[in-house]
Records
---
Amino acid sequence: MKKSFIIAATILFASIWPASAQTSCPPPPNQVSVQVTANTSFDVSTQLYTYTYTLTSDSASVQDVVSFIVSFEGSIDNMDEPRGWGHAVMSNGSMLHWSADEAADFPPGVVDQGQLPPSAFPIKPGTSMTGFVFTSPKAPGPVKYIVHGYSPIPPQASEEDAEQLSTVCGITGSFLSRGVSGTTMGPVNFLPVNISIKPPAASPVPMNVGDRGVTPVAILGSSTFDVSTVDISTVLLGPGNASVFGPGSPGSNGKADIEDVNNDGFPDLVLHFRSQQIGVQCTDTSLLLTGKTQNGTPLRGAQDIQVVGCQ
Amino acid sequence: MSKISAFLVAVSFSFLLTASSAAQVQVVLSTNATFSPVRSNAGVFGTDFVMPPSFHNTDDRPNVPLLGDSTLDLFAFCFDPVTFALQVCNVSLSIHAEPGSGGHVHTAGRPDGKLDHTSGQTTTDPNNPLKFTYTAPDASGITDVTLTGTDLNGNPIIPLQATIGVEIDGLIANPTTLAGGLLTIEPTSQNHDSNNIYSTQNFSNQLAFMAIDFRVRLVLQCAKAAPDVLTKLNCINTVTGPVPNIDAMNLPAGGLFDFKGNWVPPHHDHRVGVEADMRITNPNFLIAPKFRLMLHNAVIDAGMDDPVPGEDFDDPSSNHWHLVGLP
């Protein structure tokens, strides 16, 4: 199983990382454009899936990639990584964090004031790195990943300056949200489904942040998934957790449309969502749909998007 | 009328303080606008009243319960100790922060907080009691409150003493080591003795997680880089050296941690139990540059902010990382 996702960095960081007259803010660690490729294999003898990730940094990336985080559900084992990288399961227990741990020397002339050195083994723009590996008994489904570029925070001359910089430069808050995130494949506890946003649009599907209309999304049926089993009242879409609007929704008299939107011979479930409730952000690169079947089994699906209409 | 005595009445369900004179008008202070002769001890310092410190010039941190002034309304009631009928009295209120309280060992210039007014006349109208509003200082500690006055006949009432605990509750004292010695805590502030070792339990857990994560990453690097077992062991032995060290956290009840001893920030932060300074360039607790990426990633793994380095460029040994825990 292999799927590629291309993510684009937000270049307009200056508008969201304001600097005061006294404080020079470092760029956020999201000045990277990375393709994350997941390969999954299953070993019948061990009943374990092996997940292997390859990261390709676009030549347009401004920063070196030094951090790669993947969400997972259940337990994982046999973690491995490329030379010079390390790993740890984060304190939330549901994210594996690979990072380019082995340091290079400071550039000549740099005075050690407690700052971070560069990595000896980053993913440079225009290069790829593979070997990010773990095993899990859980089958693959869409999971979140986060990538960070190298953007060390400059040393501050005083306690006041350090505290000031944290606030003024927006460093206060989760480091994770300052990276570039997207969806890849990883171990999940739910039934993975394929979805089609604005069918038959191809990935990445254009999504306008200013859209005030209705967005159709099809949950795609297959030989192993009957879409009539979906409990429509549980379906949510996007970071805004938009619920189903119109036919099929709890407040509607009409039934959701079931049709074969991708002409594969299997019925698909077409649902509608208010575009504003979906809550697409300019940095989003995919949309996640969650829900349950009528017997309570969680299901999840995602598709790549391309956000337009951002200033 | 010559004999005057004082007593404090303690009852469990409200914050009230009572003083009395036998057969003479008695006075109480309460945070409730409704008269009741009740008192209780509460909070870190076992005071009569409890409130958080004010937060001025502070950063907008997670978990900061209050930004700006922290105020407490205190209602004064005079009453007949036999009939409990409300009486009219002329009273004055004064405040004074207790020296040495809150973990501070420096006293001169200590801020008392402030009252919106210092005198007034109590009423017999239960719906319109005399109210004083106290604004806490940024520093935590105990504020002593003294209420004096006379009844309408000019007879003095018993001076009433009460205490206000200005405090952030729920902080714990961290031991000198966490995570089995993988992290050490050695506070050195001259103005706070060894009292700046306090934090929330959650932040303490985050520090321990960080220390373990750091060590695991160190050992993993050795295991991966070394070509044979002997080299691996030698490598692991060498990486047992860098043990992160914390030199400043929070005072026992939070509040302003003014390490310069002037009762104003430099420490905007270090007030609510989710912050610490971790030494990086001090020769005795050096985290060499080659280990810093691992430590940085351990900080992130533990659920903290991206740490900001620095402190004093004229003192190369003083630079540290400013750690902030997230909820």
---
Amino acid sequence: MPEQRGRWLEGLLALLLATLFITSLFIGSNPLPLWQAAVDSLGQDPTVISLILTEVRLPRALIALFAGATLGLCGAAMQGLLRNPLASPGLVGSSSGAALGAVLMIYFGSGSWFQVPLGGILGSLGATLLVYLLAGRQAGSVTLILAGVAVNSLALAVISLLLNLAPSPYAVQEVVLWMLGSISDLSLQDFSILLPGTLLGWLLLVGTGRSLDALTLGEETARSMGVELTRLRWRIFIAVALAVGSAVSVTGSIGFIGLVVPHLMRPLVGFLPGRLLPLSALGGAILLLAADISVRLLPAGTDVKVGVITALVGAPFFLYLVIRSRRWQP
Amino acid sequence: MNLISASGIGIRLGGRSILQQVDIDLQQGEMLGLIGPNGAGKSTLLKILSGILQPDQGRLTFRGQPFSSHDRSTRARHISYLSQQGSAHWPITVRQLVALGRLPHLGPWQRPGERDRLAIEQAMQATDLLGLAARSVATLSGGEKARVLLARALAGEPAILLADEPVAALDPAHQLDVMTLLRRHCDAGGAVVVVLHDLHLAAHFCDRLQLLHQGMTLETGPATRVLSEANLQRAYGIGIRAGIPSVEQALALAWERRPAARHPDPAKAG
């Protein structure tokens, strides 16, 4: 039975995730005596190793876990909603819109902690809605990709304009590096900025699985089966904007996880979109943690951003999907 | 009591009037055939009855209560809709697709139980799909796909089945099979509204026909009355060839389903 295989899979993935999470705490320019560091951090006086653990390694691992899970989960939800295996936060504008919103806030905001994630959330929602309106409800892959390309280009163009007009070259460099997608040098405060929107978004996606399953049969049949389609659509768009907007405003654009992960998981759960949601969240967290660990294993001095790694792996995979999706689309 | 009763239904879509002043009633155990030329509004009427579309005018009741007093999911448990161009967007298995028919019966966190499994099994047996259970729906023929989609609708154990051209893609043998299944659904205490283009099948299987023409009801009643020469001429612009003495004779169904070795008789399968 696929049901049982699913439970077994979830357990296995959770175990893998836990292993990677702990590995992520170990790995870095200095190996960390983890137990000692944990004990020290509970004590009154922080030691160097406990500071490395709580101020450097832990936030990095937590952010990789939460941002990765968000990207996987939101990719699966978008693909289910649009019934299109190519839909993903990166493609339908959620990520680039979030980046634009965040950059706008960095430039014009007053600097309060909530402004950048708020900009990310609103930018994400705006861009996603724009792609959806451009492509139309029954969008095939080609229309959706074209609409996504158009909106992504627009968002990037506006970001470029802002960078172009920026008064300080340092600010430009900072924004460009952030846009590459990185989770190094982040603190627990960054994690706390990411957390509220992420959890709210996840919460909204909880319980949409059955409706997404029904959507397998098309919008009309799903409506006849009791799915409140308009409500579902808004719920998912807002959830994705909240979670992806918060993640991107902290990590920058980390591409392709939302596209690749649901695809790898789909055959394992028999293709039903509802069962795919939790597995894609686990898979996304695993992939981003693994990518982040691999970045740290590179020789010292080569500072490769994790977003660059996911793009290098993800883009060829995307091409492969474009070719394969021709079989699935009616 | 009427299961469904609608009066004065009117709807405009895209600035065009699709239905005007249409009444429709459906009794328990009744099989109602909706016929009429392309663009007469048959599919739209079916979508209104299934709750997919909201009519601009008119009153709709289900079991004597206004439609709006039941929420969408309650209605979905009693009324199943089988769309015209049904398809599956993911290559799931036949059993998974049929199981989707149970969704209206499950709460958000409820796992399918014994009763659900039984309903799925029965629907697959009735549609002769047990041999295909593990196949991906992406690999099925048109006829097999039509049966799978019908099985999905049956698995919900609805009182009312609304089927939009369920036999359009099928060969004569499977047309008879599907019509027989719909008939049996009525005989077992359900009710069916079926959109048909094949007037022979409609006359043979339906208790009552409703002929739509340009968004209005031209005639409703038994086949002999609805399929009069005058009505056929007016709605379709077709006449009955000379030499056939009566409309009934012209519309007599000359086919019957005989059990074949390869394909068991669905009447015995259930």
